[in-house]
Amino acid sequence: MAPNATDDSTTAGETDDLRVGRRKAVRYVVPVTVIGVAAATIGLVPALADSGDPDLPKITAQQLLDKIAASDVQQLSGTVKISTDLGLPDLGGLESGLLSGAAGGGDGSSADPSVKLTELASGTHTLRVAADGPDRQKLSLLENAAEYSIVHNGKDVWGYDSSSNEVYHSTTDESAKDGAETPVPATPKDLTEDALKAVDDTTSVTVDGTVHVAGRDAYKLLIKPKQSGSTVGAISVAVDAKTGMPLKFTLTPASGGAAVVDAGFTQVTFAAPAASTFDFTPPKGAKVTEGDDAEATPGHSGASGASDEKLEGLGGLTGAEEAEGFDVLGKGWTSVAVLETGGEGVPSDAELNSELGSDAGGALSGFLGSFGDKVSGKFGSGTVFSTRLINALVTDDGTVYVGAVTKDALVKAADSAK
To answer: What is the CATH class of 310-416?
Structure first.
């Protein structure tokens, strides 16, 4: 779903205010957006592989890519687990609020998908998924006896948070062919499609044997950047031998260690779910927020949670040259997006305290300082904010460089722009 367009009745002054607010938000939120953008790469913990690899007919990498492209699974239901290890500092719960702010939640509904699903940026979670064609999908996040669900049924998209008894409602374009979108990729198929957007002459693609996933036989597709400087080491995709649908997605960092993103079904069937699966009526007493009424905060754009000022998925992270709304340096896996924040770099402690209040300012200041490194070069000086996958350089004059590249690659990109 596309971002809400600016109403034609908006005055020039109001438009300027929105732009100023957006630049200010970028200034304060960009370091946090290292998490928010990384949230677009969340994945699902793989099911434990069955013992013994299946004996399947030989297949080439191109044939396997063609099999994925031809896959047309319309009906399924299953259970997945989510685990993401971005290597973020322990903020004692502060990160949840920061993530909501980065997603543009602000004072909006806790049932807004663009707010709620940012929780998947860290830790381990359990999901249930169901689909019956392009007009009916459901995704449920199960957490500590509570449940959050997104239900798409025809033109209606509902988000429901049982812990707060809040409902978020929006509608899809009747002519849309791809059904409802969530703010982040939430299945191995979503993640694989994003990753394959980056496959070009900077990428090595091979078949790496076979595997059992969720009781099904699968081929393993291995995707590796040929370029140095990317934080992505390799992406492994288990592709269902019968349907061609990705069943498992694993992204390992170039730095080694545990996977940053692991994606896989623990259970899956390809029968049509019961029609009642996609029924939803707001519970009695629930607070209902309509998507069109949601607060137009920077980075928040109604039902989809999308924004023209945000990289979208792995396709943006590993192939930023295709991202809209950014200047882009480089090509392929080492491409770097460039943002302008209006001439101001990372705010000082005093500015944070003034803008956010002493408690909030101090907490955010500690957050920024906990994983920022000062750097300098031809571009001047700035601070690099790092995770195991996404890095961002915020210069003192307010330019931001962000990508799935190393700190040295970011500095080199910033120097090349001068």
So the answer is: alpha beta
